[in-house]
């Protein structure tokens, strides 16, 4: 497949691939083991343009297109799924919606520091009772004479531990159905914003995931992104890009699993020969490689569509659904190829197996992606 990348995109990706190989991959096991947010690596990533991949250079970004962004995320995820999701949450869920929906004043205030990595962004949609049913927001934003006052609790906020700005969703009318939702830019030091302890998780450990409490947090009217009642539209638009990027993250994890399986199959000998000679092992490798390749086609197709179309709901959901399930199968089969060597705590295959799993859950589960795909095809959306 000829991606027809520009020389600038190729040079950008060469830098990203070098960074992934030389700096991220050697740190991946320790990020997983300590579950500590890799602040220094994120700063280095920013110096390569990875904190504003699709943000125009005028705002300090790398000015790349979505295909290049997807390829960059894949390269980073191949080295560390955690570093990849930190970048994805920041780029797709905070910087990109500010570029898309921000006023000139909001872009001036937030985009430059986000795109250059001076600021880290986080996105807070999920609540205890608003998971797949994201519109069911219980966090409330009450309008008074000087702006909005936010009250509520957000859970599973990636980058939340270190974020300088949180894009938080809240219902602007406290009624149960048809409530209008706003998207609010909440600065780190806003009085009343508190962070819970870092959440422990099976995989992507070190992404600084926390719960956030908003207690009478004041946001002036210029902190409302996209206008009154547009919050869900802002969030859904951002999630389309994020799903493509998470498909790319899944591709990176799946490709790394294939690398592990190949290396082990070639060197591990049983019954007097490399296990790569056994057809059972060959078939697992064939399945992994084929599923990953199919996922790559869907992911690049969705990324290309994102560059050309205003909305990519169907393409993004198909890519995310298939790539996440392909990554899960790849990591599972790679572990099987490695046998006990892959099951050992600290083995790369074991980490990939844990990291792959969450791509079927965030942002939006596989069941939600199937609902979106079916409803779109059936003309119900
Ligand atoms: C590591 C991690 C990082 C995250 N980062 C963020 C973040 O930065 N910001 C943020 O806002 N959120 C974040 N999330 C939350 C994530 O987006 C949600 O977990 C996800 O949307 C699913 O919601 P839920 O976990 O509440 O599952 P639920 O909605 O409770 O679903 C539980 C099960 O029911 C199924 N289900 C639900 N509704 C239906 C239906 N109508 N039909 C069929 N099946 C259904 C689901 O598919 C799932 O299998 C993160 C989650 C994780 C694990």
Structure description:
This protein has 381 residues and is an alpha+beta fold. It has three domains: 7-120, Acyl-CoA dehydrogenase/oxidase, N-terminal domain (Butyryl-Coa Dehydrogenase, subunit A, domain 1, Orthogonal Bundle), CATH 1.10.540.10; 122-228, Butyryl-CoA Dehydrogenase, subunit A, domain 2 (Beta Barrel); 232-377, Butyryl-CoA Dehydrogenase, subunit A, domain 3, CATH 1.20.140.10. It is built from eleven helices and ten strands. It has helices at 7-34, 39-47, 66-79, 81-101, 104-115, 231-267, 279-308, 313-338, 340-343, 348-357, 366-377, and strands spanning 121-124, 140-144, 147-157, 165-171, 181-187, 193-195, 210-219, 224-225, 269-270, 273-274. A hairpin with a 2-residue loop joins strand 9 (269-270) and strand 10. Helix 1 (7-34) packs parallel to helix 3, helix 4 runs antiparallel to helix 5 and helix 6 (231-267) runs antiparallel to helix 7 (279-308). The protein is globular, with a radius of gyration of 21 Å. The two termini are 32 Å apart. The mean pLDDT is 96. Flavin-adenine dinucleotide (FAD) is lined by residues 89, 123-126, 131-132, 156-158, 201, 204, 209, 358, 361-365, 367-368.
């Amino acid at each position: 497949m000829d991606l027809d990348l520009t020389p600038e995109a190729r040079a950008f990706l060469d830098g990203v691939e070098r960074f992934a190989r030389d700096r991220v991959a050697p740190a991946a096991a320790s990020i997983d083991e300590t579950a500590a947010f890799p602040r220094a690596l994120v700063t280095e990533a920013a110096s390569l343009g990875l904190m504003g991949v699709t943000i125009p250079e005028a705002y300090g970004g790398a000015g790349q297109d979505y295909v290049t962004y997807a390829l960059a995320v894949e390269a980073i995820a191949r080295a560390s799924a955690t570093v990849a999701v930190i970048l994805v949450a920041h780029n797709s869920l905070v910087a990109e919606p500010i570029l898309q929906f921000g006023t000139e004043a909001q872009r001036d205030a937030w985009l430059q520091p986000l795109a250059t990595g001076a600021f880290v962004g986080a996105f807070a949609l999920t609540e205890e009772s608003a998971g797949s049913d994201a519109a069911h927001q219980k966090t409330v934003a009450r309008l008074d004479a000087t702006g909005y006052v936010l009250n509520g609790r957000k859970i599973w906020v990636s980058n939340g531990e270190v974020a300088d700005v949180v894009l938080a969703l809240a219902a602007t009318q406290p009624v149960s159905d048809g409530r209008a939702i706003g998207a609010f830019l909440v600065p780190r030091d806003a009085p009343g914003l508190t962070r819970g302890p870092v959440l422990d998780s099976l995989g992507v450990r070190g992404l600084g995931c926390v719960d956030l409490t908003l207690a009478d947090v004041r946001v002036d009217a210029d902190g409302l992104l996209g206008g009154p009642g547009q919050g869900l539209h802002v969030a859904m638009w951002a999630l389309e890009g994020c799903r493509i990027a998470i498909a790319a993250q899944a591709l990176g994890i799946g490709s790394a699993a294939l690398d592990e399986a190949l290396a082990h199959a070639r060197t591990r000998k049983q019954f007097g020969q490399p296990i790569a000679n056994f057809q059972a092992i060959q078939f697992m490798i064939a399945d992994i490689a084929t599923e990953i390749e199919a996922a790559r086609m869907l992911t690049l197709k969705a990324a290309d569509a994102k560059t050309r179309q205003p909305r990519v709901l169907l393409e993004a959901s198909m890519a995310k659904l298939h790539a996440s399930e392909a990554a899960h199968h790849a990591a599972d089969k790679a572990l099987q190829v490695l046998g006990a060597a892959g099951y050992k705590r600290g083995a790369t295959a074991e980490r990939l197996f844990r990291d792959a799993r969450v791509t079927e859950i965030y942002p939006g589960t596989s069941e939600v992606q199937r609902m979106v795909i079916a409803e779109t095809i059936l003309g119900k959306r």
